[in-house]
Design a protein that fits this description.
- The chain is of the alpha+beta class and 163 residues long.
- The protein has a single domain, classed as Protein of unknown function DUF192 (Jelly Rolls, Sandwich).
- The chain is 20% helix and 34% strand.
- The chain has a 7-stranded mixed beta sheet. Strands 4-7 form a two-stranded antiparallel sheet.
- It is globular and about 35 Å long.
């Protein structure tokens, strides 16, 4: 090892130790510690009603974290981002290791648009086509499998009943 490479390797080793010391080992992320959970029902013309176990991101901190660092999400699970007012929404896949279907949903629960099979770890902006109040993230392929298109509607009673 040359004299020039030794300081660089030493610095990388120290950075690795510091990251582990901070407790940020995301190999097994427990979303239940940071997000409330509920069941979300989606009504489709073809499939009837489909139930998803979801985590709910309401606060700015929760929405910034989202599904980052998650390496596996069980089938029929997802995360819904709840916003106070309809607006153009943009998402990205920074530090998100699993491909997702991202559904942009209007305040009445109607799906506005779907971005299918998004690219993990991408910084590309994925935007709604119109103002939306909710963004639902599901495992990639779920939207196509269940026909979650503009004809589908989220049943949002539980999400909107809270004060």
């Amino acid at each position: 090892m040359t004299i020039r490479t030794q300081p660089i390797l030493s610095m990388l080793f120290v950075l690795l130790l510091c990251a582990r010391a901070n407790g940020q080992d995301y190999s097994e992320v427990d979303l239940d510690d940071a997000f409330a959970r509920d069941v979300l029902v989606v009504s489709t013309a073809d499939q009837g009603c489909i139930r998803f176990n979801i985590h709910i991101a309401v606060t700015r901190e929760q929405q910034m974290r989202g599904l980052m660092f998650v390496r596996h999400m069980p089938e029929m699970s997802g995360m819904i981002f709840v916003y106070a007012q309809p607006d153009q929404r943009s998402m990205w896949m920074k530090n998100t290791y699993i491909p997702l279907d991202i559904l942009f949903v209007k305040s009445d629960g109607e799906i506005s648009s779907v971005a299918e099979n998004t690219e993990p770890l991408s910084l590309k902006s994925i935007s709604s086509k119109e103002p939306v109040t909710y963004v639902l993230e599901l495992n990639a392929g779920t939207a196509k499998r269940f026909g979650l298109t503009q004809n589908a509607k989220l049943i949002l009673d539980r999400l909107t009943d809270e004060p």
